Amino acid sequence: MTQSITEVFADAFKTTFPLKSSPLVDCITNPVTIESMANALLYIDAKPVMADLPEEFPKLFTQIDALLLNLGHISPERKDSLLAAGRYAAETHKPAVVDLVGVAATQLRYDIGQQLLQNHPNVVKGNISEMRRFAGLKSTGRGVDGSQLDQSATALAELTKALQELTERFPNTTFLATGETDLVVSAKGQWRLENGVPQLDRFTGTGDIVGALTAALLSIGLSNDEAVVLTVSYFNCCAEVAAAQNTAGGIASFREKTLDQLSLLADQADWVQMVKGEAL
Ligand SMILES: Nc1ncnc2c1ncn2[C@@H]1O[C@H](COP(=O)(O)OP(=O)(O)OP(=O)(O)O)[C@@H](O)[C@H]1O
Ligand SMILES: Cc1ncsc1CCO
Ligand SMILES: [Mg+2]
């Protein structure tokens, strides 16, 4: 008998949302979705700061509660900034999330991702295609998007095994691969999450937001696995409510309704009933 995700993480599901404190998250991220990310943090009652100049880190890191490193738009300056912040987070014991945006597309991003992994961040995430590439498997991802071909049952089983092998070398890191099914793999176990709607693949920044919200949850006492499972489940349930409401609207309306739910769904205690997922 497999255990449902809400049974495995029962305490976290009961107590996390709405947040009781306002964790401050520094996001070093891409200019495409930076505004959506900052607002998404505010909608769940966290606080964003988008600061990426290494000279600021000594003072900044005394204030922040967590760090998000997103590889979405690399420039020479941002590359230095991501690498410096990753090291700084390890030195100052700040929880950190690495989002491997575009890792399936170029060797340069793959190399930066691997360098950031050496700091043993709490969470390394990407879409299914990015995570396949990162785990050394064949990937059909293009640009920053995941590919349907990488979502088959066989491909997911192969990815689970490859990520499990990575946790042997990186036992303090939880790996998240997002898509129609989301895979969570850590040294403690493997889980599959099944919420969400296909429209989530049709506006940009959904994965970026999941990364930032995960960083916020890491800093309020949740374990790596709890933070990942709670964030993906909550975000995807918000999208399910938005899709049900958006009978006549287009994707822009769906986007707005999804973001709106970030500040609303937490007050409905029964959102947890919507959660689908299980231990593997
Ligand atoms: N077809 C789908 N069905 C259900 N949920 C989905 C689907 N596609 C994506 N999601 C959900 O949307 C969120 C983002 O996942 P996705 O894999 O699209 O990230 P991404 O490619 O990194 O996004 P972006 O690059 O736009 O930030 C996750 O919570 C995931 O579960
Ligand atoms: C479209 C796009 N290009 C670089 S980052 C980004 C946003 C999704 O991560
Ligand atoms: Mg992404």
TrEMBL record:
The keyword Aminoacyl-tRNA synthetase belongs to this UniProt entry's keyword annotation: no
Pfam family, one: HK
Cofactor: Mg(2+)
Molecular function GO labels: kinase activity
InterPro entries, alphabetized: Hyethyz_kinase, Ribokinase-like
Catalyzed reactions per annotation: 5-(2-hydroxyethyl)-4-methylthiazole + ATP = 4-methyl-5-(2-phosphooxyethyl)-thiazole + ADP + H(+)
Binding sites annotated in the UniProt record for substrate: M50, G205
Annotated metabolic or biological route of this protein: Cofactor biosynthesis; thiamine diphosphate biosynthesis; 4-methyl-5-(2-phosphoethyl)-thiazole from 5-(2-hydroxyethyl)-4-methylthiazole: step 1/1
Binding site for ATP: K125, T178
Enzyme class, broadest EC rank: transferase
UniProt entry keywords in alphabetical sequence: ATP-binding, Kinase, Magnesium, Metal-binding, Nucleotide-binding, Thiamine biosynthesis, Transferase
Enzyme Commission numbers on file: 2.7.1.50
Family: Belongs to the Thz kinase family.
Function: Catalyzes the phosphorylation of the hydroxyl group of 4-methyl-5-beta-hydroxyethylthiazole (THZ).
Name of this protein: Hydroxyethylthiazole kinase
Designated gene of the protein: thiM
